[in-house]
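Hi C.,

You asked whether I'd gotten around to modeling the 526-residue construct. I have! Everything is below, sequence then structure, no commentary in between.
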Amino acid sequence: MDRTPQSNVLFVVLDTVRKDRLEPYGYERETTPELSRFAEEATVFESAVAPAPWTLPVHASLFTGRYPSQHGADQGSPYLDDETTLASILSTAGYDTACYSSNAWITPYTGLTDGFDDQDSFFEVLPGDVLSGPLASVWQTVNDNDYLRDLASKLVHVGAMAHSKLASGEGADSKTPTVIDRTRSFIDDSESDDGWFTFVNLMDAHLPYYPPEEYREEFAPGVDPDDVCQNSKEYNSGAREIDDDEWEDIRGLYDAEIAHMDAELGRLFDWLRETGQWEETTVVVAADHGELHGEHDLYGHEFALYDQLINVPLLVKHPDLEADRRDDLVELLDCYHTVLDVLDVDPDAIGRTDGDGHSDRVVARDSTRSLLSREYRAFDGVADPDAGQRAVLEGEGDDYAFVEYAQPVIELHHLEEKASEAGIDLPDDHRAYSRLRAARSTDAKYVRADRIPDEGYRLDEDPAERTSVDPADDDIVAATERALARFEGEVGGAWDDPTETDDAADALDEADEETRDRLRELGYLE
């Protein structure tokens, strides 16, 4: 099917934003008037599923079209390696490409900015040369060496420093206005005859919540951000209690942050309209993951795969998409194929090497994973199915999305630290130690864990996931569990042996002194 020509793509990620706090998804507070206006000319997807519950693996999936266990970018190995990114493909095809963000994971050190002609993380917690150079090479050396690999779970102090400073509020000033200004400047300066691809990550709704005063007074009047719990690990470890009034204050601050992002996004949208670029620009607005505010006795976005985290907002404006709502299942990693489809770029036609001549892996454009295609999710026509497609094809006719969550190294480090400070011993079967995978359909979800009981839910009957259902008692949950088992088989087996994540007895003893000295310089070791 011929596509309506589009020259440009603006891809916006609202970091850590849950869909039920946005007006287009039924929220009663007026947090997002600009998104509501945008939704009137966009397709609003109700069942978009993120491939993981946190930033790094989700963005790696957006940029490669692969599931987390396939691209390998996670806290144990926090970088993309031998992967051709979406930006690399588009840049090679002649598009101007840029990435602007205030998220520490979207930096040269993780490889997520590879291929962008221009990028800025606006991340000021650690010096740029640490994030973009030495840390990357040392962490990669550790992970590429068998006897040092187990050490990776201990070498988290640089990341811990960054997270601690963020949680203190010292680095909490919003970078969003600057991100929007840089985006406008890049677009204004673009001279490509083909067009541009701009990726923007807005970070305000990530802890800690320090919204500008005008939004705080509207959504959380009288609330001092320093008076509420801004560190999720304190609550999740059991070191800190939060009562109903404090949760209300926290949620108000969160709403205020979302309202600020919405206003800034509206400023960018209005400028695109005023400069005559709106009609020829496809706009994608999504969240990479959501947030928990006490649901399931959790705070933040770690240690779980509940729908508040993985069923994310997704709105797409394209002339071939109706301004309507869609209930069918969507995987966020399908956005990779959708962008290629919008700009009619075939990765195979432009070669499989990056700008430095390195031969990297590249995911071919697949119409069954493009939101624009009539063949969307019709996997039976795919010649070489990926892991998710194969798991669906070999099933019973239902469609499923798949989610993966490896053990979170930095979050676990902080959780143990907060527990220790409070004199709390975390049990071996605490959910923070668990690796999780899930299969999700529009009606059900099944979550497999290696240290805690599996969880099954009938989302059509229990959307809040309050009561776990045994597959033996429900055919739909049973079918979802079988889909997950097929996916696990495709990506290397189930995460069902807790001993696989245990630390080596003393891996550091095998590191030479030069490696030890380098790690001390970076702050990994004392």
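If it helps when you're writing up: The two ends are 60 Å apart (CA to CA).

Thanks,
B.
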